[in-house]
Q: What sequence folds into this?
């Protein structure tokens, strides 16, 4: 029983040695390698359907953000006046402390507007997670809120930099 198996194994090994050593696999690119690495073209997303519930929610959020921005602007005008008054004052003087306090109040008001940005961002990411198409009104409100937040930050930074000891 072992002898026929040994004979069969040795014949199969000899057959492997008998292949033609001059034939090599082709180094030409395979068809799949000719396709390239470009991303496939995708169809444009379907426009989002009107959503009255979302529009109402957006209106409330935008109104809250606009009120926060108006409050910030009023406080920023007051802080700018106090910062100009403290321009030549020493660090720790009453004028300097009043300006620093007004700038700190601006940070709190900026935070209220930041809540609006966060709420809009949550709505947009929730839609994306649900694989819903972008909602133009939401995207516009989010872009406006982010631009307002950046402007508020720049205004606070400019006021803080105008004070002595900054």
A:
């Amino acid at each position: 029983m072992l002898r026929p198996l040994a004979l069969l194994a040795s014949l199969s090994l000899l057959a492997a040695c008998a292949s033609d050593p001059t034939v090599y696999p082709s180094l030409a690119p395979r068809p799949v390698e000719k396709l390239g690495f470009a991303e496939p073209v995708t169809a444009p997303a379907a426009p989002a359907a009107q959503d009255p519930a979302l529009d109402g929610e957006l209106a409330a959020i935008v109104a809250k953000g606009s009120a926060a921005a108006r409050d910030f602007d009023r406080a920023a005008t007051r802080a700018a006046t106090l910062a100009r008054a403290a321009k030549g004052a020493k660090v720790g003087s009453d004028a300097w402390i009043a300006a620093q306090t007004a700038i700190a109040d601006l940070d709190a008001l900026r935070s209220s507007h930041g809540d609006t940005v966060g709420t809009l961002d949550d709505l947009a990411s929730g839609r994306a997670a649900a694989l819903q198409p972008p909602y133009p009104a939401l995207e516009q409100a989010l872009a406006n809120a982010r631009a307002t937040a950046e402007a508020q930050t720049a205004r606070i930074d400019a006021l803080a930099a105008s004070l002595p000891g900054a």
About this structure: Residues 94-129 form the longest helix (36 residues). Helices lie at 2-17, 52-85, 94-129, 136-162.
